[in-house]
Structure formats: structure tokens, C-alpha cells
Amino acid sequence: MRAIFRIASGIGLVLVGVIGVILPVMPGWIFLIPGLVILADYFPPVRRLVDWAKAKVESVKKS
């Protein structure tokens, strides 16, 4: 039951984030990033995306 709630909240955050990216009313990345991090626990392609983004941030920090 808890996993279903987490997946549903992750999908909801991603949807709100995508809407926020499209509409100029709110910043979508505030919702998109946490939604992807939540979904990364359950979906391997999303995990690879999050790991790639973390590696990019670390490489920028080192430069």
C-alpha cells in the first residue's frame, strides 16, 4: 500500500512539474525533480536518469 502511494505521489509530482514547465505561471522543476527522485526507487530507467544528473552536478562542482 505504501509503495502504491509513493508511486502515485511521484507520478503526480512529475505531472505537475511538466505542466509547470509548459505554463509560465510556476516553475516546474520544483515538482519535477522530487517526483523523479521518488520514482527512481521503483523504475530503473528513471534511476539511470537521476544517477546521470547527479554525476553531471558532481562534475560541475569539481570544475
List keywords for this structure.
flat, mainly alpha, 63 residues, 83% helix
Task: Please tell me about this protein's structure.
The structure is a single chain. This protein has 63 residues and is mainly alpha-helical. It has one domain (2-62). Helix content is 83%, strand content 0%. It has 3 helices and no strands. It has helices spanning 2-22, 29-40, 44-62. Helix 1 packs antiparallel against helix 2 and helix 2 packs across helix 3. The chain is flat. The termini are far apart.
CA-based gyration radius:
13 Å
Report the order of strands and helices.
HHH
What's the shape? flat
Whole-number count of domains: 1
Q: Helical content, roughly? A: over 70%
**Uncertain segments:** none
Question: Mean pLDDT across all residues, rounded?
Answer: 93
Count of alpha and pi helical runs: 3
Which strand-content bin applies to the residues? Answer: under 5%
Reported for the largest beta sheet, the result is: none
What distance lies between the first and last C-alpha atoms, to the nearest angstrom?
43 Å
Task: Give me the secondary-structure category.
Answer: mainly alpha
By DSSP, the count of extended strands is 0
